[in-house]
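Example 3.2
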Amino acid sequence: PAGQLSAGQKTRVSLAKSLINAPELLLLDEPTASLDPDTADWVRGYLENYCTRHHASILLASHNMAEVERMCDNVLMMRTGRIVDQGTPAGLIARYGRQNLEQVFLDIARGTGHAAQSEVAATRQ
């Protein structure tokens, strides 16, 4: 019975169900959150290959910025329910002067660094 599955098993079943009809658009919310690192890495690779083979796209909601950096061509950053910035992972990293997307995410979430300067400039306009 499905009620006896672990969180990771439920995640794998959910992913399998989402792929069964070979959709061109996948809507995924934290698709690897309950998976062990090895399985999560396999799932990310599988999804990347799936998109290439099926010319599909993924709309991914995630707090895992390493996953976002690896899988996404374009990123929307949100704070308090509002989109505050967008761009490619590399573009956001460069704009914020950071080493990775996790650091950019933390700047935005905390309102520090470039994110704080952007908010001040936006309030003056």
